[in-house]
Amino acid sequence: MMGGSMMGGSMTAQRKEAKTWEFGDFQTPDALAYKAMAHLRKLDPDFQPGTIVEPTCGAGAFLLAAADAYPDAERVVGLEIEAAYLDVLRPKVAARQDAGRFDLRAADFFKTEWESLLAGLAEPFLIVGNPPWVTSADIGRLKGRLQGSNLPQKSNFQKYSGFESVTGKANFDISEWMLIQNLQWISGQSGCLAMLCKTAVARKLLRHAWKEDLPITGSRMVQIDAMQYFSAAVDACFFSLKTNAGQSCRDCALFDDFEARSASKVFGYHQGTMLAHADGFHKRKAFLGSDRYYSWRSGVKHDCSKVMELRKTENGLKNGYGELVEIEDLCSFPLLKSSDLGNRRVRETRLEAIVTQQRIGQATDYIRDRAPLTWCYLQRHAAALDGRKSAIYRNKPRFSVFGVGDYTFTDWKVAISGFYKCLKFQVVSPIEGKPVVFDDTVYFLSAKTEAEAQFLADLLNSKPCQEFLQSMVFWSDKRPITADLLKRVNLEKVAKCLNRGDEYRNFTDQPI
Ligand SMILES: C[S@@+](CC[C@H](N)C(=O)[O-])C[C@H]1O[C@@H](n2cnc3c(N)ncnc32)[C@H](O)[C@@H]1O
User: Fold this and answer.
1) Domain ranges for the chain
2) Is the Cα torsion angle 325, 329, 330, 333 positive or negative in sign?
3) Which of 3, 235, 352, 441 is deepest in the core (most CB within 10 A)?
4) Ligand 1 nearest-atom number relative to CA 58
């Protein structure tokens, strides 16, 4: 169910919807909150919280379920930014016999002095709830329609060590920031964190905790059918862990549902790497380490597909505005996109990409003399190219692209799409006599010859290497295959394991 329906008044429907999104407002159905709390109790019947905290309590589904599950907790603290939800919750609390232990506050998580609010409250804490399902980018997009302000203060979150590494700089889930803070509250004492959230967010929190060596144990995730409960097409889970409750542990058990008796898999952490299948990883961990010779690259980045990507038609090349385009061959290359790799279409393409440079930062005015039609075309669309928002284009030669180097123009490559849920590496040959370029969601290795490309594909598609990669791939991620993942494979070690070490040395010109 999507929240916000009870927030009426003068708000227009559009503003209401924007506000719902800004606050990541998906209220938990009562039945799910009670199920989750029953699960938590069953899991750890001895755990007795002194204080229950719901940091973004909404209409109170989790707050009330937790209060009922733990009737001996001294205080039940609920905070919520949207006062209308507290108007719904307050009468429910007032009607309870234990109303005196509740403390409900209309406040902004990011502007709350949590340290003083929690000081002196009985330990251990149970931090419970369902934080907002929204990313900083979503909020950015809402700017203008609303304040677009539901974000931690920049100065605030930069102070927090490890935040950048957890979230990445460009875009992060608001709940990630909140959960990191929640965990901080209980890192110095014994406590329990139990939250319904996106599975990817829970995983990032765990990576942070494991990386920072925080004293956590008993991590587990129970998968939730987010479509059924929230009409949302995301991977979500009920995630719980305890702090300072025995020896720290770097494993997390994943359960398919609340009824499952045993974990369907265990994932973990090893030397800075998140493991989707700890067992598979340990079997093949000899392959871990970057390769000395081969470097993974991503395809060309231009952020202007309407101008830079051209489709072959009966009448000639057409750009994304539907205009016929006449340009020289010099800067035009056959283009394969992620979807082509994902669907194994690598022998031919109907797309061409304009690649204006052979290396990053190269001056582009050579095009004026050597390819005047291309230069005119770029000039004609200069407004779109000059208007590219990403900071990487600032103070760079006009019409610059990224992801270019000698490796872009080798005839043979072995490539994979970052987006498709398939670990198949494909050999890519030149098309119509020209080297193929990829979009920036494709990762590839360059090869000098077809034999070398085939050799690399054999290594990468071999069973041992696939087992190793599979152990680190989280298929529910938006981009499951990343350069970071691929760079963890030492191909020389894979070659040796397959008795092909001599070929590796031959291809890499090393003395045998
Ligand atoms: C996913 S809903 C869940 C509500 C409640 N925890 C539950 O389980 O039903 C997230 C809630 O966070 C609230 N929220 C969003 N941003 C907030 C902030 N900065 N401070 C406090 N609450 C916030 C929203 O209004 C919404 O009620």
Assistant:
1) 13-214, 297-353+401-507
2) positive
3) 352
4) 27
Q: Is the pLDDT of residue 22 over 70?
A: no
DSSP three-state, residue 446: strand
9 three-state secondary structure: coil
Q: Is the CB of 199 under 6 A from ligand 1?
A: no
pLDDT digit string (tens) for 337-359? 999 999 999 999 999 999 999 99
Q: CATH number of 13-214: 3.20.20.30, 3.50.50.60, 3.40.50.150, 3.40.50.300?
A: 3.40.50.150
The predicted model gives 325-333 an average pLDDT of 97
Per residue in 217-260, pLDDT tens? 999 999 999 999 998 888 999 999 999 988 888 899 999 999 99
Peptide bond preceding 124: is omega within 30 degrees of 0, i.e. cis?
A: yes
pLDDT digits (tens, 9 = 90+) for 372-428: 999 999 999 999 999 998 889 989 999 999 999 999 999 999 999 999 988 999 999
Alpha-carbon distance 494 to 504, whole Å?
Answer: 10
Largest Cα–Cα separation, the chain: 84
Compute the distance from residue 311 Cα to the ligand 1 centre, in Å. 46
For atom 26 of ligand 1, the residue with the nearest CA is 25
Averaged confidence pLDDT in the chain: 89
Do the strands 251-255 and 351-354 form a parallel or antiparallel pair, or are they unpaired? unpaired
Tokens 């419970």: give the residue: 128
- What's the distance, CA 465 to chain centroid? 24
Two tokens, residue 157: 């979150």
What's residue 401's pLDDT? 96
Test site for ligand 1: of 2, 23, 35, 134, most ligand atoms within 8 A of the Cβ: 23
Cα(384) to centroid(ligand 1), Å: 39
Geometric angle at alpha carbon 282, from 279 and 287, rounded to 5°: 135
Q: Which atom of ligand 1 is nearest to the CA of 23?
A: 15
Domain covering 297-353+401-507 in this structure, CATH number:
3.90.220
What spacing in Å lies between the alpha carbon of 33 and ligand 1's midpoint? 14
Q: Is the CB of 81 under 6 A from ligand 1?
A: yes
Cβ atoms of 300 and 355 closer than 8 Å: yes
Ligand 1 in reach of 177 Cβ (< 6 A): no
- Going from the Cα of 28 to the center of ligand 1, the distance in angstroms, rounded, reads 10
In this prediction the pTM is: 0.71
Q: Determine whether the shortest distance from the Cβ of 22 to ligand 1 is under 6 A.
A: no
Which residue's CA is minimally distant from atom 15 of ligand 1?
23
Q: Is the CB of 23 under 6 A from ligand 1?
A: yes
Ligand 1: atom nearest CA of 150 is: 19
Please write the tens of the pLDDT for every residue from 151-172.
Answer: 665 544 434 444 444 434 456 7
Given strand 351-354, what is the order of strands in its sheet?
Answer: 324-325, 316-318, 309-313, 351-354, 332-336, 437-438
One fold for 13-214 and 297-353+401-507: no
